[in-house]
Structure formats: C-alpha cells, structure tokens
Amino acid sequence: MKDSMDYYRLLQASTHNRNDLLIMKQLDTLEHQALDTWYDIGNRESSSGTVTQFEDAFLVLDKSHQEVYKVNNRIIKLFTDPTIINLDNNTFPHPYPVMSTDTSLSYEFVEGDVNPYGDNFTKFWKNLENLWTYCLTNNSSTVNKQLWQDKTWRRFEMMCKSDEKYAGVLNINGVDIDCTRIVENIDWDILNTGILGPCHGDLTMDNIIVNSDNIYYIDHRAGVVNDIFYDICKFYHSLHLHTFNLENYHLTETDDGYTIKLSLSEEDELRLNQFRLSPIYCQNKRKIELGIGCIWLSMSPLNVDKQLNKFLFLSAIQQLSKYDTTDKK
C-alpha cells in the first residue's frame, strides 16, 4: 500500500467489526500494488520459514530494538527509538546513496567481505592502528562517565530486572562471583578517562566491509562516542564474538552453576594475536580488557536470543572479575 498513512487513517476511523468491504470502497483513490506472493512474518515460526524461501543469505543478529532488511539491493534498518547516524564521518566512510528518518536508514548494498580474514583484515587493521596511534600520540584526553559507567550500570540493571539472580552470587566455570560487587568495584577512573579522536561508535567486524577498491563502515553512532578506546574495545570484542561464530559459544546450566566457553577458529586466533601484539594493546592492556567486559555487559540485554544474552552477561562478569583488585574475602 503506497498511501499507507491514508490506509491506516481509514482503518482507525472505522467503527465496524467487519470493515473489509467498507474499507475497500474507500480505497479507490489510494495507490496500491498487487503482490504476487505474500509472506506472513508475524511470529517467529513463520518468520523463520519465510527466510528459507530466499536464496540470498543475509546474516544479521536479531536485536530487540531494531530490524534489518535487504530489499532491491538496498539495506533498510528500522529502529525502535530515534537514532542519529553520522553519515559525514570521513574517517569511516559509509555506503551511499543514503536515505534516512529519525527511526530508519536505507543505503546501497555493497559487495565485499564482512568480517574479513588474511590480507583483507590486515588492510583495514593497519588503517585503524595508524589512526589510533596518532590519537594516542596527540594525547588529548576526554572524560565520558555516561558512555562507560552510566551505560554499564543501566544495562546491568536491565539484566537484573529480567531475572533477580543476576544481582547475586553466580558460579561461573567453578568460581563463585558476586555480580553486583564486581560491577561496583570496576576501576571506573581508568575507563571513564579516554583519548579524543575520530570515532565510529559501533566499530565491530560485522560493520566493516572490505573489497578490492574500498573499505566501508556501516551502523555509525553519532554524537555519543568521542573516546577512541570505546572503538578499540568494540573492535576487540568483535575479534572474539562476531556474527559468523555465534553458533560456537557454549553455555551449560546446572544446579551447581554455569559453564561457558567460546570456541574460536584458527583464523580468529590469528587476528586476536595480531591485535594483542600491537603497542596499542600492550600499553593499555588492563584498560582494554576491562573495556571489553563492559561492552559484553552492555550488549547482554539487547538480543532476541535470551541464551546469547545470558552468555554475554556471564562472560562479562567473568572477564571483569579477572581484573578485580579489591579484597575478595
């Protein structure tokens, strides 16, 4: 229905229980287009069945606050809340042409490797390393409590609201960990104080597309991130967990607690080693490792897959506990 707003108005104005005929009589002036086939995606079962009808594999992590579609060689993203996308970020160029509203974004689908390995990984990693090295050398500091401390606490409280057990003591891989105490004792000073520089805002492997000619960056976050360490930690997170290895996490729950593990491929390990050998990581290891724990915790309430949310939360608490220097009596 091209005149969708008029169609919606007619539906809302009708007082009839069976208004099909009444509505149809009023649609003569509205523009519409007949569909050859209709797919019902109103529930999870029918939505999954619909996806199998199409050959074009379009792998996207289901989020509870957004939807992503590929239609007529364009990407369409719909957001629950108004979202500002920084399309003029020259440091992280976005595919064009772009159309957008407060709650939607559409841009041309571009061919290339998402989550690249080998030479294509090295290609953009060197660009990022040079950018971050320049920013660190320039050493212009920024303090962003809202980005790190406030956001982490807000997402922690969302998980606790979903299940109060997340606020208590959990046994993770054989170790009892007091979740609330761990978050309380995070070294917020080291996290809240960062380095100013050009930022993408959601710099993950799934948001980087590399082909023979260009490097494209999608899903920018504008006006929220100005600390390069947020980008660095997001990037580091995605070297562990990305869309293509989501099936490789293991979570077992028993009466005694939880066992979690993430199986990484040999190529994943090579990329991680390349990152960990860089001066950026070596000189800021504690900050980056704490940061990735906060990233996982912040991601944990947002996915449709509740098991993945639980895995992310448990991984975050375990990660943060490794860098807890307070008295553990």
Descriptive key words:
single chain; 329 residues; alpha+beta; Aminoglycoside 3'-phosphotransferase, Chain: A, domain 2; 2 domains; four-stranded antiparallel beta sheet; 13 strands
Give a quick summary of the entry.
By secondary structure, this protein is of the alpha+beta class.
Q: What average pLDDT do the residues reach?
A: 87
Q: Number of DSSP helices?
A: 12
Shape: globular
**What's the SSE pattern?**
HHHEEEEEHEHEEHHEEEHEEHHHH
Strand content: 15-25%
N- to C-terminal separation? 64 Å
* Poorly predicted tracts of residues: none
Which CATH top level class of the largest domain fits?
Alpha Beta
Which oligomerization state do the chains in this entry correspond to? single chain
Write down how many β-strands occur, each being a DSSP E stretch of 2 or more residues.
13
Structural class: alpha+beta
CATH topology of the largest domain: Aminoglycoside 3'-phosphotransferase, Chain: A, domain 2
Give the spatial strand order of the biggest sheet. 1-2-4-3
CA radius of gyration is 23 Å
Biggest beta sheet summary: 4 strands, antiparallel
Helix content: 40-55%
- The domain count comes to 2
What CATH architecture label of the largest domain applies? Alpha-Beta Complex
Notes on the protein architecture:
The structure is a single chain. Helix content is 41%, strand content 17%. By secondary structure, the chain is an alpha+beta fold. The strands form 5 sheets. A 4-stranded antiparallel beta sheet has the order 1-2-4-3, with no helix packed on it. It is globular. The model has no long low-confidence stretch (mean pLDDT 87).
